[in-house]
Write a structure and sequence with these properties.
It is a single chain. With 378 residues, the chain is an alpha+beta fold. 36% of the residues lie in helices and 25% in strands. The chain is built from 10 helices and 18 strands. The protein has a 6-stranded mixed beta sheet with strand order 1-2-6-3-7-16, with helices on both faces. The longest helix is centred in the first third of the chain and has 21 residues. The chain binds zinc ion (ZN). The site of zinc ion (ZN) has 5 residues, from helix 4.
Amino acid sequence: VSNRFRGFADEHLGDLLADLKAFVQLESPTTDKAAVDRAGQYLAGRFADAARADIVWHRQERWGDHFEARVGRGRRRVLLVGHLDTVWPVGTLERLPCRMDGDRMTGPGCFDMKYGDIQAVWALRAVVESGAAEDKTFVFLANSEEEVGSPTSRPLIERLARESECALILEPSVGPEGAVKLWRKGVGMYRMHVQGVASHAGADPERGRSAVLELAHQVIDLHALNDPELGTTVNVGVVRGGTRSNVVAASAEAEIDLRVRTMTEARRADERIKARPAFVTGVSTRITGGLNRPPMEETPASRRLYELARRLAADEGVDLPATGTGGGSDGNFTAAAGVPTFDGLGAVGDGGHADHEHIIVSAIAPRLAWFTRLLVEL
Ligand SMILES: [Zn+2]
């Protein structure tokens, strides 16, 4: 069964792709403020022109400026979240141009997540032109530094989430079916510092206390915290230590990544990581760091949003699956603020942060249609 929004999506597909191409060609690596600001100006202009949005800027010194695009005057608030930044340095377009390749469109950041931002522009335009959803105000937040963990946008995202009924995150979907995300793991980042005693490995070995040996025991102990049943992963991804093969190592350090499904498990694993046992006598171990993004847990309210989306997608002939991921997004912050969060609503495609990044063009019209209806009917 088709609907008026599917007609709108089919009619405007070419315009949407032109917007997306212009946006992708404004390369916007997180660390280049001037470049991210150019992309932000462009996107804000599209929200203002196409969806009659009021733009509220949140200026930043170090990072690109964030903005809110506010659409509608209704009492019920719905938050949409996207990011302007990509992991790709300026000049990547020369190597990975933005172009059509059969049913694919390629280009740095097209999948993660410039398509999602542009989808929001066109969905809000369709909502505004239809006169539907006049009971709602939609607030789209464009974050300039998501790829480095949202250091300055986090408090803004959390505040906007608390003011909203729900949060819709336009990050890319999963797999060729365009699966949405109902959960994301929480992320912990730690550093372990091991202090031993140096000595000559040949002349004076018994006076040494090896930090490298202690570190080896610690790595094995930390990896034992992995629990596939609970979805908990611990990865010691980087180790460093010692100076020369003939010196008993005086110091060593490691970098540790933790992923957890629930807040309960986050607390348990965090305690276990911080309470390090001692293995080598005379060596001390210190842990710094902690939980960076809390887990986005599935809730009955987020499940209801998914059930509605699945019904609307079915009208477009799309069988919409739901899944989750070990990777974080701003959805972790909105969910932890206690707001029903529905993520992975953006692009269908593949290759985020990789050379084969692309979106699937034939998936756009049906997705834009059911997403627009979701905005109206939720
Ligand atoms: Zn992203």
